[in-house]
Amino acid sequence: MNIPVKAKSHAYEVQISANRLTEAVKSFDQQLSKADKIIVFTDENVWRLHSERFTAEFPYPFKVNILEAGEDCKTFESFFAAQSFLLEQKCTRKTFVFAFGGGAVGDLTGFVASTFMRGIPFIQIPTTILAHDSAVGGKTAINHPLGKNMIGAFYQPQGVLYDISYLTTLPEKEVRSGMAEVIKHALISDEKWLAELMATNSILDFSQADLAKHLEQGIRVKASIVAEDEEEHSVRKFLNFGHTYGHAIEAASGFGKLAHGEAVMIGMVYALILSERYGTIPATVTRSFIEFAVRNGYSFDAVKQFTFEQLLDYLMKDKKAEYGILQFVLLKKIGEPFVQQISIEECQEIDGLLRVLIKEVLA
Ligand SMILES: NC(=O)c1ccc[n+]([C@@H]2O[C@H](COP(=O)([O-])OP(=O)(O)OC[C@H]3O[C@@H](n4cnc5c(N)ncnc54)[C@H](O)[C@@H]3O)[C@@H](O)[C@H]2O)c1
Ligand SMILES: O=C(O)C(=O)C[C@@H](O)[C@H](O)[C@H](O)COP(=O)(O)O
Ligand SMILES: [Zn+2]
């Protein structure tokens, strides 16, 4: 199954398959056979679990750069070390880079590729559910201690080779994190799809076929938005649903403590409460959404660990903010996102409502 991503700067495909990595990589033979070097970036966990299989399946000689796992690889230090690695390996503009891992590996690798000698080609080989989102659309970045994804570039991969048979080793926490972005794609695009997800007994143990169906649907939502607005001037903001408050919680917790999707889930509840006020989302929907989240093991404990004042500095660094005013992605109804400016006073009020609601639902 190939899904086209017609980004303005560069069109490419997401190839979704199972147990077909060799064929997928070979589909780039024309470019790869001309490369002077092929470098694979991965992380310590992915490499521990999959190096043998990957090496057997990858059809070209390559050198590997093993990164620290998780957000620890999205740092200035890791960026610098990765550039040093490429220089030490005598890489040039004829070098091709692969990102074999989750969103953290993909974000770091993409940013390194975008800046090494002002840009060398890279391909994403995602290994997490979450990466159905992160590997597509060309947002690349590292974190700054003061804020999430603060330094980065829009830089599209040459392709995305999503062999979902590599997902079977994911721990439950990462399945949950990844499914949060699937739920986000449903919330911003399709009421029926969201209802189907919410009616599922557990979203953590889909069969491979059902999971593939949801991932494909999520990728289609993302691809069509990116085709319309690659650099987030308009509709791409919708993909940030739940991220303004979510990123603040994620950054305040210390990168890597909460998985990205776990934080986004909290942020999506915050955005739903705002959507009751500015859209037509009934309060009952927000409540059943929290119940659905709790049923599937999402935790809201992180909210209690911070005061609104502690979150505010991070909130204000949201990249959608304009002239010091925060912009939230909200829903008129499920599947109909829009962007709304919200004052700091109102943000604080909603933060209070979120805390009360969580307490009530969990009681
Ligand atoms: N660029 C984008 O558009 C975009 C979109 C969403 C999220 N993101 C970013 O992506 C990152 C989150 O991505 P993620 O959740 O994939 O995280 P990740 O890359 O940190 O992976 C999560 C954990 O799972 C492990 N892992 C990866 N694949 C595995 C496998 N197959 N089996 C077992 N363990 C495996 C990793 O080693 C890591 O410990 C965040 O930094 C977030 O900001 C970017
Ligand atoms: O692709 C996008 O656009 C997104 O916003 C997808 C998000 O899921 C992702 O977490 C993204 O990295 C957030 O971007 P940021 O600009 O808020 O850092
Ligand atoms: Zn995200």
UniProtKB/TrEMBL annotation:
Gene3D superfamilies per the UniProt record, alphabetical:
3.40.50.1970, Dehydroquinate synthase-like - alpha domain
Domain of life of the native organism: Bacteria
**UniProt keyword list:** Amino-acid biosynthesis, Aromatic amino acid biosynthesis, Cobalt, Cytoplasm, Lyase, Metal-binding, NAD, Nucleotide-binding, Zinc
Q: What class of enzyme is it?
A: lyase
Q: How is the cofactor bound?
A: Binds 1 divalent metal cation per subunit. Can use either Co(2+) or Zn(2+).
User: What catalytic reaction does the record list?
Assistant: 7-phospho-2-dehydro-3-deoxy-D-arabino-heptonate = 3-dehydroquinate + phosphate
The GO biological-process annotations, alphabetized, read as: amino acid biosynthetic process; aromatic amino acid family biosynthetic process; chorismate biosynthetic process
Q: Which GO terms describe its molecular function?
A: 3-dehydroquinate synthase activity; metal ion binding; nucleotide binding
Needed cofactors: Zn(2+); NAD(+); Co(2+)
Could you confirm whether the keyword Signal appears in this record? no
Instruction: List the GO cellular component terms.
Output: cytoplasm
The residues the record assigns to binding Zn(2+) are 181, 243, 260
Does Plastid show up as a keyword for this record? no
Which InterPro entries does the entry link to?
Answer: Dehydroquinate_synthase, DHQ_synth_AroB, DHQ_synth_fam, DHQS/DOIS_N, DHQS_C
Give the matching CDD domains: DHQS
The positions annotated for binding NAD(+) are 103-107, 127-128, 139, 148
Q: Where in the cell is it found?
A: Cytoplasm
Coiled coil regions, renumbered to chain: none
Instruction: Give the record's pathway.
Output: Metabolic intermediate biosynthesis; chorismate biosynthesis; chorismate from D-erythrose 4-phosphate and phosphoenolpyruvate: step 2/7
The residue ranges of the 3-dehydroquinate synthase N-terminal domain are: 66-176
Q: Main subcellular localization, coarse class?
A: cytoplasm
* 3-dehydroquinate synthase C-terminal domain mapped to chain residues: 178-321
Q: Function of this protein? A: Catalyzes the conversion of 3-deoxy-D-arabino-heptulosonate 7-phosphate (DAHP) to dehydroquinate (DHQ).
HAMAP family in the record, alphabetically?
DHQ_synthase
Task: Give the family, as the similarity comment puts it.
Answer: Belongs to the sugar phosphate cyclases superfamily. Dehydroquinate synthase family.
Q: What is this protein called?
A: 3-dehydroquinate synthase
